[in-house]
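Worked example (supplementary).
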Amino acid sequence: MPELPEVEVVRAGLEPAVTGALVTSVTVFDERSLRRHTGPGEDFVDRLEGRTVLSAERRGKFLWLPLGAQARSAGSGQAHSTGTGQARSTGSGQAHSTGSGQATGAEALVVHLGMSGQVLLRDRATDDRLTRIRLDLEHPAHGPLRLNFVDQRIFGSMAIDAMLATPDAAVGLVPSQVAHIARDPLDPLFDDRLFLARLARRNTGVKRALLDQTLLSGVGNIYADEALWAARIHYDQPTSTLSRARAKLLLAEVRLVLAKALGEGGTSFDAQYVNVNGASGYFSHSLNAYGQQGKPCPRCGRPIVRESFMNRGSHFCPFCQRVRLPV
DNA sequence: AAGTAATCCTGATCGC
DNA sequence: TGCGATCAGGATTACT
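After joint prediction of all chains, the assembly is encoded as:
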């Protein structure tokens, strides 16, 4: 499951390769991979071909490529891209998108890997099985390039989305689909105090809170279990009963595990997650709790347990991680 | 209104 | 060898 470290590895791999590249041709093999795009496949293709990729950005598990203004006719050697990036300001549409954030006319290609998505950089001759969307690119310095969006379970998606100026200025623009997501804990502008205050006000279990992308983004099932194990907190401990000290410890452990996994290139099981070159990460060798049911807890030696929770698995040490109610 | 459950998806793997 | 059942869970939608 690609979470923050895996998505960041993809972003970092993409950035030097695609920045400045022109999208020359787009092929949609399966429109279900456009579930987050408003409009049919042809619209996606029309709005992407002829655009230039400006950079590669990320927040939490969302990845996006800001796009330059659209050339008048794709394929022709446009002299001036008579920039009409404007115009498509969604009319009134986004009453729901976030409640905050202002349309700017700028757009981005938003990528979410979902459960099994991969972005693979190839030469023009290479195809990958289960490719749902293919972008052919032309980079002024590096030449032709192919970007295959591969996704077995089709929980991931690509979309052209409007960039909004959020009140949360400083960073500038985020796609409308990302505007309601909180910053991730590796973001230098992540607000610890705000997070701790909101966490304390929640009336739910702590793992539910960790997985809530509007509270903090980038954490999924693997790193939630790992951070909770490291902090010795039970996944269903009510957030309102966590002391501030333990909440701060948890946040610190979240940061640690995300940073460590990032340093090791992410977590790979089989070929479910790979970097843009198709290589696996090594963090699966460092897991203490996730997927370790039946194996001894690296801390106390008692077996790790897996319980069903939120339609997924929760892995923890029943001895080290017990619900502690305040006295 | 906040919190929770349901929903979407299919290739790989397992058991018989 | 074949085939059906099972499994994985992020984000959105739909309820209560």
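Two points are worth noting when inspecting this output. The CA atoms of residues 228 and 241 of chain A lie 15 Å apart. DSSP finds six helices and eleven strands in chain A.
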